[in-house]
Amino acid sequence: MEFYPGFDIESREKDMEFVYGPDVFGPKPEKRTLEAIRSSLQDPSCTGPEILYSIVMDVGRKQDHTAITERNLLYGAVTYAKGTLGKEPVRSQGHIHAISPSCQSSTCEVYEIWDGEAFIYMQEYGKDDAGNCYAVHAKAGEVVIVPPGWVHATINANVEKPLTFGAWCVRDFGFDYEEVRAHHGIAYFPVVEAGNITWEINPAYKNAKLHVIAAHDYPQFDLEPGKPIYTQFIEDPDRFLFVSRPQLKEKEWEEFHK
User: Which residues form the Glucose-6-phosphate isomerase prokaryote domain (predicted)?
Assistant: First the structure.
């Protein structure tokens, strides 16, 4: 991989399986199919890879498992296939993080790209007025944070290469797809044109303002640029408590998109 994630894990392109080192725990991957997300695509009848992405939730070094679970955190890894879904790049359908019983709140997610490049798409609301929408372009080693309560989707920004990333999230996670599915997808569809990604508004929304931006640093969350977010947890296990306890960063969430 282009960026070392801080522990011994690899993604195999040929079968979209994850390989763990001897000191690493993790489950067998769950694989998401094109059929499962058709209703949220710009062209629901399109062709594309049968398996869109492979995901393992709860991975890490064996010696860190207790520290991770005590903080109600979970680390996941995902690989997306290369290719297209009609005019769109391979992507997820989009969802909101449901209210977690442990904190009585929707929670954030902290992405880190390991291989390839992504657009992490997010919109303020799942209603007819989607509010501010952001497509954050991130390359290997870069981090993107999605705030609590925002609709978000992951998009493979390079149709010629798989995308692999890791993410910190809350352990008692849940996904809410209702509003996205009611609008037949996210507010802006990514479209591949001459190898580049452009954006077409989803007519099911009455209002949405898109900002296409590059990944950036997050000093307000005490994150260190260029250092694996897993390594940052090892060095300071409380650094990511804002993921499982979003109330700790209430001011930062209020100012997040300003």
Answer: 50-199
Unique residue bearing structure tokens 């007819």 = 128
pLDDT of residue 195: 85
Q: Read off the amino acid at residue 168.
A: W
Residue type at 55 in one-letter notation: I
Under 8 Å between Cβ of 177 and 168: no
Rounded to 5 degrees, φ, ψ at 48 are 175, -175
- Rounded to whole angstroms, the Cα distance separating 16 from 37 reads 18
Measured distance CA(226)–CA(191) in Å, rounded: 30
Cα gap 24→86, rounded to integer Å: 37
Name the token pair of 128.
């007819």
Contacts of 174-178 spanning 24+ positions with Cβ under 8 A:
174/97, 174/98, 174/99, 174/100, 175/95, 175/96, 175/97, 175/98, 176/95, 176/96, 176/97, 176/98, 177/93, 177/94, 177/95, 178/126
Average pLDDT of span 229-234: 98
Residue 36, classed as helix, strand or coil, is helix
CATH class of 9-255: mainly beta
pTM value? Answer: 0.97
